[in-house]
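Entry 14. Ran structure prediction on the chain below.
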Amino acid sequence: MRFIVYGAGAVGGVVGAGLVREGYEVVLIARGDHGATIAAKGLTLTDPTGVRTLSISVVAHPRECTFTDDDVVLLATKSQDTLEALTELSKVAPVTTTVVCVQNGVENERVALRFFSNVYGICVVGGTAYLEPGAVMAESGPIFGSLDIGRYPEGIDDRCREISAALSGSWVMFPRERVMEWKYTKMLRNIVLAVQALCGANMRQGKFFDLARAEGEACLRAAGIPFVDDATWAEARIGGPEVPLPPGGRTIGGSSWQSLARGTGSIESAYINGEILLLSRDYGVAAPANELLYELGVTAAATGQAPGTMSEEELFTLLAARNSTRA
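Output, structure tokens:
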């Protein structure tokens, strides 16, 4: 079984590095300076056990791969890049290719099923980072975190078990009959990413996040979409690695914080806060906090704003002003 990691950033790079470490054949699809650096020098992985540079095959485009029935594509692009990635992949890979969405949000699997008949979802729980070409980081190691995996839209099959076994050397694995319930819960938890990008790396929780998450839960309930409650989520993570808060606090935030830090010009707000807004508009449930986070996140990415330039108090002030105008 060969793994083709499409999108070798924070999550994709760490997952790919773990598979290489366990002896699996891996090809990374990575463009620009990141791909060029990996090709020339290898992929550098930093985790609490040390720093190592791994030799990994890398290409810039799916057309540089010759696909076989035994290949597994781990799609790890940002959600806003999924459609383009799958369009290019579908030009060269058979429709029966196994595609595993190792991504935030809940839209990617649905998009993938338009192109490929064997689609799986993975819910990622673990801190990873990609800030410079050729290098990725993991907050824990040698076990990087935990992964919930299942066939989309539901089920566990032999292919799912094979993938889970391969990843189990670097991750605590949880095969799930209904993996999307776990991904919806992760989406709710990921509402904090926009708060963190705007207010700083240590904004893992807070009152504004609590407000925005409550809106998200209300929208999911109105839509009749099941998700996993916090008690069940916490119980499932007991077997995962512990990641203590570094002395002096975190200096690197999550994926949206990293997007602003790298100046990518885009952010995944449309597939986290925007998913809540979609349900809000479909089912008539107010979600002003998510609307504000979405707009501020998109504007920050488009204008090159650095992460952590706002305070939580400013978010509440802006929200109050907006609500009073609409009253």
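The chain has two domains: 1-177, 190-327. Will compare against last week's run tomorrow.
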